[in-house]
Amino acid sequence: MKKKGHFGRDRSPPATATSTVDYLTNTLGFARESAVAVAEELNIKTTTRPDLVVQLFKSIGFTPTHIATIVSKHPSLLLADPVKTLAPKLQFFSNNGVSGSALVHIVSADPVILRRSLQNQIIPCISFLKKVLPTDHKSRLFSLPSAALGVVHKFSEKMVPNIETLRSHGVPESNILRMLILRPRTLSFNTGAFKGILKRVKEMGFDENGLMFIHGVCTLCGMKKAKWESKVSVFRSFGWGEEEVIALFVKQPKFMNSSEARIKKSLDFFMNELHWMPEDISKYPIVLFLSFEKRVVPRSRVLQLLIEKGLVTRRSMGRALIIPEDQFLKVFMSSYEKKIPELWEIYQSNKVGLPQSAVSV
């Protein structure tokens, strides 16, 4: 048992590890096993401060379940100064439109936000959002806890000039908001380099009004030039030219976030097994994201047989891979099962027992 120390003004009796577990179970409804785990990270000498922290959270709408979630994720917050550390931050959020259920959800999702500096992180970030976003966009941002947290955690003064650069290129406000939600780190990119990437993306042929423009910028900001060249070289090894790679990138930029192994696997299957050309893949770029096990292999085996029997044309393959399951079963399975009784067996067997070449990377 730990030695008793000096407790200053706290008047509550000293708490042992056992009493800490009891406090967590009785006050916050922890399961005993969870309480024991959390108690290992806490050094509660008295219950005075934890009581005040709990009272503060409850006073602004947090339930015991919410508080238990916060404490389980960040136990030390139970010992934070409720007056000097927690209340000012919670009050600031509330005064700036993040209150009620939104505040509860944001703090519960990531309690470490209450460990961020109010003066150096939280206030500058909220001021930034109020400056660069229209009112309706701010409300949308804070209705998504993970998005709001991402902005606060990744906040940088570089965001302001980078957003202005996007605006100067004609990028719609809705797409800027999407970038802020999905990839706030991209907006913290070096301003000079950010301008260079926007120029490069426009030269590739992206439409600044489209959402793919944002994905293109995010992809290039997150990838060093050497890595880009290495991935392009994989395409070249399958006979692709630079223009063909860029044409695919413009249609589906997120595919370049895939590993080189995944790119190689996809190109090998579509080009060597299905005999697709670069233009076929560019016409249906979404196929590069589809599951080999659940969709690409079983459906392609069915289509190969239907093509062999002269029941469909090769041009049907792309559509067959991307349509929803119920449509595929109706159009390509039920319609031909009488002519090819083994069709269902082929489909199911390729879903369950995949050849080694079709196993996902």
Automatic annotation (TrEMBL):
Q: Which UniProt keywords apply?
A: Transcription, Transcription regulation, Transcription termination, Transit peptide
Checking InterPro entries in the record gives: MTERF, MTERF_sf
Q: Which Pfam families match?
A: mTERF
What is one GO biological process annotated to this record?
DNA-templated transcription termination
* Gene Ontology MF annotations: nucleic acid binding
**Which family does this protein fall into?**
Belongs to the mTERF family.
Q: What is this protein called?
A: Transcription termination factor MTERF6, chloroplastic/mitochondrial
Originating species: Vitis vinifera (Grape)
Source taxonomy:
Eukaryota, Viridiplantae, Streptophyta, Embryophyta, Tracheophyta
